[in-house]
């Protein structure tokens, strides 16, 4: 389970995350959408414990990521849009290193690693140094290393960037299977089709605020727009932009607009 409680992040005068509260229950596949600079990555970085919120808190499996970082991180996997990998290691060495960080037994690393390597078609690459791998292959290595310890919560920023259609399908299938088995997925994307196909619920962030949360159908009703998620997304973000222009962001907060 993920809990974001009155999360605020300011960078100087800029409020990148503006009082976001949200609960994502165990096993839910949650997609977060939003225009550029809306605050998605900042929210994800706070959730992953990489940056500190100005106020409010983020919990993973009941543990505050700031006050109980080790407990929270044990339950969490985070794949950024441009993952950091140890380039001089081979993919297999990197998997063993990651598994050991999560205190997995060597035997377990071998068994789970082999399953994932096969599933993600990584056999031809696992004994080569990571520095020579293509972007899409590196992305698959990052996803495998994040899934290795069987996390309770899987956070991923732009998962399909650089993946060919076949491997995008593999990633979608594996994440959906894991979420059906109880893993909570929190995914940020600009690919509306991914959210539309995969997510149980979708959240839309606009200028740091969570302006809408719900199932695909609930968001469609809220937007008043018919058709694909693209129309819903454009209608909701345009309505919010108009509201901000009419009332100003401070008045919206004063009116108690749900963040
Ligand atoms: N370290 C930082 N210092 C100053 N401003 C920052 C920092 N990190 C993010 N920001 C600002 O916070 C705002 C939100 O950025 P964020 O990366 O969270 O947006 P995003 O929704 O992920 O955008 P995109 O879809 O373009 O990736 C932006 O205005 C960004 O410039």
Automatic annotation (TrEMBL):
<keyword id="KW-0067">ATP-binding</keyword>
<dbReference type="GO" id="GO:0016887">
    <property type="term" value="F:ATP hydrolysis activity"/>
</dbReference>
<dbReference type="InterPro" id="IPR003593">
    <property type="entry name" value="AAA+_ATPase"/>
</dbReference>
<keyword id="KW-0813">Transport</keyword>
<dbReference type="InterPro" id="IPR027417">
    <property type="entry name" value="P-loop_NTPase"/>
</dbReference>
<dbReference type="InterPro" id="IPR050763">
    <property type="entry name" value="ABC_transporter_ATP-binding"/>
</dbReference>
<feature type="domain" description="ABC transporter">
    <location>
        <begin position="2"/>
        <end position="232"/>
    </location>
</feature>
<keyword id="KW-0547">Nucleotide-binding</keyword>
<protein>
    <submittedName>
        <fullName>ABC transporter related-protein</fullName>
    </submittedName>
</protein>
<dbReference type="GO" id="GO:0005524">
    <property type="term" value="F:ATP binding"/>
</dbReference>
<dbReference type="InterPro" id="IPR003439">
    <property type="entry name" value="ABC_transporter-like_ATP-bd"/>
</dbReference>
<dbReference type="Pfam" id="PF00005">
    <property type="entry name" value="ABC_tran"/>
</dbReference>
């Amino acid at each position: 389970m993920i809990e974001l409680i009155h999360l605020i992040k300011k960078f100087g005068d800029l409020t990148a995350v503006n009082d976001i509260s949200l609960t994502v229950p165990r096993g839910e596949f949650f997609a977060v959408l939003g225009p550029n600079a809306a605050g998605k990555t900042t929210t994800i970085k706070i959730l992953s414990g990489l940056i500190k919120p100005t106020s409010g808190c983020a919990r993973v499996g009941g543990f505050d990521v700031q006050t109980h970082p080790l407990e929270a991180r044990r339950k969490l996997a985070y794949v950024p849009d441009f993952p950091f990998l140890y380039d001089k290691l081979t993919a297999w060495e990197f998997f063993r290193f990651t598994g050991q960080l999560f205190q997995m037994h060597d035997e377990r690393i071998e068994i789970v690693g082999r399953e994932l390597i096969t599933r993600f078609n990584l056999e031809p690459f696992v004994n080569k140094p990571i520095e020579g791998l293509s972007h899409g292959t590196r992305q698959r290595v990052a996803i495998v290393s994040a899934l290795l310890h069987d996390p309770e919560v899987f956070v991923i920023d732009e998962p399909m960037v650089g993946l060919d259609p076949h491997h995008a399908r593999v990633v979608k299938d594996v994440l959906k299977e894991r979420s059906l088995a109880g893993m909570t997925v929190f995914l940020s994307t600009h690919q509306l089709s991914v959210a539309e196909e995969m997510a149980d619920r979708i959240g839309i962030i606009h200028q740091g605020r969570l302006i809408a949360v719900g199932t695909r159908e609930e968001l469609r009703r809220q937007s008043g727009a018919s058709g694909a998620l693209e129309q819903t997304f454009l209608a909701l973000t345009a309505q919010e932009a108009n509201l901000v222009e009419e009332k100003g962001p401070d008045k919206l907060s004063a009116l108690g607009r749900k963040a």
